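S1.2 Input.
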Amino acid sequence: MTRDLNLRLLPEEATDGQALKQAASRETGVTEDRIRAVRVLKRSTDARQRVIYVNVSLRIFVDEEPDGPEYRTITYGDVSKARPVIIAGAGPAGLFSALRLIELGLRPIVIERGKDVHERKKDIARISREHAVDPESNYAFGEGGAGAYSDGKLYTRSKKRGPVERILHIFCQYGASTSILADAHPHIGTDKLPRIIENIRRQIIASGGEVHFRTCMETLLVRNGEVTGLQTRDGQVFTGPVILATGHSARDVYRWFERRQMPVEPKGIAVGVRLEHPQALIDRIRYRRPEGRDDCLPAAEYRFATQAAGRGVYSFCMCPGGIVVPAASAPEQVVVNGMSPSARNSRWANAGMVVEIRPEDLPAGRLEAPAGQSFDRNSPLALMHFQEQLERACRLNGGMTQTAPAQRMTDFMNGRNSANLPASSYAPGLLASPLHVWMPAFIVDRLREGFRQFDKVSRGFLTREAVMIGVETRTSAPLRILRHPDTLQHVALKGLFPCGEGAGYAGGIVSAATDGERCAEMAAMFIHRNGLV
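S1.3 Output.
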């Protein structure tokens, strides 16, 4: 017999297996010797009051043992002789679309411009060690996509793209801890996610699919308004319907659509900085305890949002116990992001602090862009050009290397340069720089107002011990590749399925993965309807 119950426990009870069994026994009246196992279904920390509690949903097994693993498994068959579908990009959208295609009896052929997840790690290390950015293998490009080495958070507010639980169960099947099924904000960790990604790749190949690294899409092949495949930079041709899952940093893909006047539309982005505090300070603020936290509490996190002059100002991708990383995808850029290992045990906490930007917020007239070109702010790529401008300005103000320009939070608020900077997790190094001078005023003013509001909510958040590191620009795609809402095909090109973050239809690992599954289902339907099996 199984019974489900909801308990409100002290942290020391919620983190101890024997204490959980005792609490379940008290709640139900079932003696402890009859409770053979306790399974945590949901868990969240409530730190809103001085006494901290953990809300726990449990399933207890009375007089019986659990009949299987905590997660559901999927059996993937042999599709080596099946109809191929081409997937451009091996991020979460691409990998999960490949798995779903195998379920549906189709053969995925995945091409990825970057390297496999382990070789890619070496290039990422060179960014910090040598300030050398490989434009094809970095934090944005390579197996696993931008999420592989930028934290592995699996939390999403979006439920409209499919069942989140299914994605979490698949992650568990390939090696993730089952804690992600229970935690309110599930997190795998940068140290563990690469192995899971590699296991997914092995499954794709074992089922008869293909994965090609260092293989970059050059152009889509189009005949009579239908995509029949793609050609790579080295001249290889892959034929079949195409799921386009190239990520939000594949700017060459956006330019391909613009040159051919294919329907795309600009969409709002968010731009700002990476803000880093000592983790101990965030623990004291968020847990409202002078002593901070003990071993029974996780590293504290926060989420802030407000409005300033008609635009949203909010925290993004908060990384408790994490580090700030160099996330440029080309040598002429400086871009930062954050990540956390599974233990979330670094000395620092960081988060993106960003301002919502819409096309009408850009300066009037024409914008400078790469190669001496300029573009009108009404161009669908205008926000992408703005990102590029800011990333180049960041490199210029950071010393023309991957050293990042930075400023103490209080100095930013008071309009003065920082005489010195606090210790930071950012490995390439920081250079004191007046962010309030060279960043656009409509961003600076709104960040200042946002920080004032956030400090009212969490006193002590606005502090000289926090450092702002420039710039955070890759929060989402700067445009949307238009597709039909019913078939998910591009509005002008049959057989093309724009997918995930890069196409403007997702915002994180889980939502990208669910969108990848949906695109796989629509590609399968397209093949069957057109008699291509």
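S1.4 Remarks. Residues 509-529 form the longest helix (21 residues).
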